[in-house]
Amino acid sequence: MDAAFDIVIVGAGMAGASLAAAIGARGDARILLVEAEERPGHHATGRSAAFWTESYGGPGVQPLTTASGPVLRDLGVLTPRGALTIGRAGQEDDVATFAGRYRAVGVEIELLDRAGLNARVPNLRAEWTSGAFEPSTCDIDVAALHQHYLAQAHRQGAQLWCRAGLLGAERTASGWTLALADGRRVAAGVLVNAAGAWADPVARLAGLGPLGIAAYRRTVAQIAVDGPVPGDLPLVLDVAGRFYFKPESGRLWLSPHDETPSPPCDAAPEEIDVALAVDRFEQVVDWPVRRVEHRWAGLRSFAPDRLPVYGFAPQDAAFFWFAGQGGFGIQTAPAAADLAARLLMGAGPGAVDPAGYAPARFT
User: Fold this and answer.
1) How far apart (Å, rounded) are the C-alpha atoms in residues 63 and 291?
2) Are 188 and 178 within 8 A, CB to CB?
3) What residues form DSSP beta bridges with 246?
4) pLDDT over 70 (residue 42)
5) Above pLDDT 70, what percent of the chain?
6) What are the tens digits of pLDDT across the range 116-164?
7) pLDDT band for position 47 (50/70/90)?
8) What confidence category does residue 85 fall into, taking pLDDT thresholds of 50, 70 and 90?
9) What is the pTM of this model?
């Protein structure tokens, strides 16, 4: 045996890094982060569209997002942006329902008519007639947030081993013996599954049944358009969930809001999805696209009910789920990590009730 730890976290993206930092802040547990790639954050964390908006992810995710806001602001990783969810003629009721759903839980949302839309999105095409504006929405400096958590975890004594993916997990009387891709074997009291799209395969390695956490490809393209991009342009989303776009360093990032089922992999964009993103964008604004400058894709992983999974496996108290965070794992990182660390360390309740995220809901 090469080493022994109280807690081994599989995955050093935003989920694993934030959880390691939160655990370390609560005690002196020996923590190891194991990462399959050469560097942490290669997959979903490094490919985020980088925004914090309270309505994104649905009402079940909103408490985590809202609770994370003050922490993210204190860390200095948020920049005000605003979000505008828009609808075509005939979708006014959909926009009003969307706004009402989140107003009911305390999210500030302003309903806009066509004149209000014109004030925020120049050259908006005529068929877009209503919108709901969220002034609290911000851009997130994802890299700075991830590095903050990695650095905090390191200061608190956590170790990070890269190119050390999990190959095997054998249950023992005191926890686990883990075989890693770099040839080392370690003992762990608790195994934490923060493996993102690989969460179900990690559970299978540990002899547990999968939860049905499935990965879906999401495409983003960076484009240049004729004329300058307004610096104060909000994040613009479709009430029907067919696109979003936002300014980024004088360019635009846009997505067709695709969800293509995918095996866990190093995701790459498909040309058809990039073309779809551009086509949908050109149906929204009269801003001719000059060129696509960059394109990428990432995997968003969801449990069957599309809520995250936080907690000990019902069939094994030495296996902890921290997965299924879809496309909202960045914006919910502080609250999710606090919730999970409290469960792991047996602390009292925090800002968000964990009951709705328990893995036992699938048994």
Assistant:
1) 39
2) yes
3) 253
4) no
5) 98
6) 999 999 999 999 999 999 999 999 999 999 999 999 999 999 999 999 9
7) low
8) very high
9) 0.95
- In SS3 terms, the chain reads as CCEEEEEEEECCCHHHHHHHHHHHCCCCCCEEEECCCCCCCCCCHHHCCCEECCCCCCCCCHHHHHHHHHHHHHHCCEEECCEEEEEECCCHHHHHHHHHHHHCCCCCCEEECHHHHHHHCCCECCCEEEEEEECCCEEECHHHHHHHHHHHHHHCCCEEECCCCEEEEEEECCEEEEEECCCCEEEEEEEEECCHHHHHHHHHHCCCCCCCCEEEEEEEEEEEECCCCCCCCCEEEECCCCCEEEEECCEEEEECCCCEEECCCCCCCCHHHHHHHHHHHHCCECCCEEEEEEEEEEEEEECCCCCCEEEEECCEEEEEEEECCECCCCCCHHHHHHHHHHHHHCCCCCCCCCHHHCHHHHC
Q: Give me the residue label for tokens 């081994």.
A: 8
Calculate ∠ Cα 123-126-131, nearest 5°: 85
Both tokens of 49, joined, read 């569209």
| pLDDT at position 338 over 60 | yes
